[in-house]
Amino acid sequence: MPNWRSVKSDHDQATDAHTWKQDYLGQPDIDLLLAAAKKGRHGVRDHLLILMMFRHGLRVSEAIGLRRRDVDLEQSRIWITRLKNGLSVEQPVAGEELRAIKRWLARREDALPWLFVSERKQPLSRQAVNYIVGTAGTRAGLERVHPHMLRHSCGFALANKGRDLRVIQDYLGHRDPRHTAHYTRTAAHRFNDLW
């Protein structure tokens, strides 16, 4: 007879694996990563790339797909085109992020349509983004940092701020709430004031 207590669904196993292996960065580590990105050869671009990937929970392909026309500086908004059948939405940009976008665009002398370009005037490749994020992580003294950690970091940061599951789901473009639920399950604020 099977021990039903040890049998877990695929979803429970995935959630438990996610919980045990921390694949996101807390705000202090995000701050270190952003500061380290500024110190690179292309610091203005790399800082903005990492900041936007974190703030908007962008996948690599979504970040490299951003176009200048997606950014509305007058309204302080950005159009995020989600992939993997995700919900595309307009999101606000403000403060440090808005200033970083303006700094980056002011340095650009080209009329290329992409928001993020390489020094060869091409859109950044997936490999370039992996390198940028990994190098900034190493420079910051963090263990193996990869781009998808920034998406997870966004979800956990929003959950820890007490944001509603449905809002986080729409913000990250998830169609299925199960993809968002693990952020709120482990949010530290849920356990405040229990005693």
TrEMBL record:
Domain of life where this protein originates: Bacteria
UniProt keyword Transcription present: yes
Domain Tyr recombinase: 20-195
Pfam entry (one): Phage_integrase
Listed InterPro entries: DNA_brk_join_enz, Integrase-like_cat_sf, Integrase_catalytic, Tyrosine_recombinase_XerCD
GO BP field: DNA integration; DNA recombination
UniProt KW keywords: DNA integration, DNA recombination, Fimbrium biogenesis, Transcription, Transcription regulation
A molecular function GO annotation: DNA binding
Family designation: Belongs to the 'phage' integrase family.
UniProt-listed PANTHER family: PHAGE INTEGRASE-RELATED (PTHR30349), TYPE 1 FIMBRIAE REGULATORY PROTEIN FIMB-RELATED (PTHR30349:SF62)
Protein name stated in the entry: Tyr recombinase domain-containing protein
